[in-house]
Amino acid sequence: MLTGVPPFYAESTEKIHEKITSSETIVYPNSLPSSAKDLLAGLLERNPEQRLGAKRGAGEIKEHPFFDCIDWNRLRLREYHPDFKPPKITMPFTDSRKVRALAKAEVMKQFNQGPSYVSSLTTGQMTRPATVDYNKEYMEMRQGRFRVAGASLPPPRPSPPSPAVKIPIDDNPDWELVWDGETKVFYFYNCSNNARQLIVPQTFFPRQPLNQAHDGSSTGDVGNLPSQIQKEDALEAALKAGYTHMISQILHKYGGMDLNVQLYGFQRAPTLLEFAVEQEDANLLQLFVDESVPDTWGTALFLSVKKGHQEFVAILAKVADRVDLTRALGRAVGRKDTAVIGILLASGAKCDFEDSDRPPPPRGCCFPEISDNEDCMPPLVRAVKLGNMGLVQLLLAHGADVNVGYHGLHGDHRSLQVIDVTCGRVIEAAMELGHRDMVELFLEKGADIHLPQPTLQFHDCPMIPRSVYFRVRMGLREVEAAWQSTRDSDEWVVV
């Protein structure tokens, strides 16, 4: 209970018996006080006659200095309250995820092979009956494909264009944007041939007058100025036509505009910055950034990291906040994109989150289990999961916390990677995954394997299989002892 593992723990029964009968001195963690070490040494004395309590029984044990602060009468009356109480929840004590994964893989392997048998038919042919799909009509009904006459159905509604489809830039100065104050409509006007193109509102997702424009108008009833919705439609029409030279006019000429908008005429309704990233237009992106277009939730920065656009990452990183920069850094680490990682670190990205950076729990009367958001996983933990020593060293060189904790870390089912210590500290994840070199590096950088487990509000960390916990904890102690011995020997200088 004091050390977390049995005194003679080993992975095999033979080694356990060997440790019990051995005359070697038991090594205790440095975190234990001297009184606790002396108590354990007395209780684990191999000579029964010299063992603590052998002479005067339990009274001799109670008189040990380790129990000086205990009032045995109060303890008998149950007046003491423990400092820590486990959560009152039910958790199954399951085997290691790795054991279950291997068993499941073996079952699936046998299932995929199918039964093996030898046919007793040596002659003749077998006729396979036609396959009958009894659920075909039901599935057609669910998908809206009813058996009606084709002439009675309206033509299918066209889907909005994808923002990733490249739109050629048309900087022809003959095309101008005109606002008709009498009819209160926008239209494109060509000075050379007097052609007009009326800007009609998009109908895929009709906009609602929720956002107020800077001039106080959302419905266009202030003077002859266009409404916020009309300016959004005009901006979207200009982007679809490639008339980027009209953007500044839309943003400034008509009393200002709320730029925290989405382009509902495109698939997935991108923001202005997301649209510029999808178009791979650095000039358009820089224009929007200069106009103080917000990157809501950092989606444009994350999209740039996903696409590996270094120039776009450099532009957006200058205006991103601290949390979004760290989230983007974690995504770049997951992609092993060292170039983007270098840009983010040079832009001031921090390698660790703060406790207040995690999203708040959902509102309402229901309080579901809160797990660590994938975006809130520390970048250093991601690098350890990947087993990339270079990224680990890079993050540590930029101030990553060597004792950082994590919650909700899971393996990769595609590579059959299994992680049982889903909540813990980064050095424990490295030990479980077998990265001994990383564990030694963490110890060299000041990692403490005796720190308590990290906690997360509204989150209950799952149980760890006993065998996995013992293996990880004893592995850390063995590596620490070997590293400490090597460091002490290196301190000796031959004169």
UniProtKB/TrEMBL annotation:
Residue ranges of every copy of the Protein kinase domain listed in the record: 1-67
GO molecular function: ATP binding; protein serine/threonine kinase activity
Transferase in keyword set: yes
Keyword ATP-binding listed: yes
Keyword annotations: ANK repeat, ATP-binding, Kinase, Nucleotide-binding, Serine/threonine-protein kinase, Transferase
ANK repeats: 375-407
Full protein name: Protein kinase domain-containing protein
Upper lineage: Eukaryota, Fungi, Dikarya, Ascomycota, Pezizomycotina
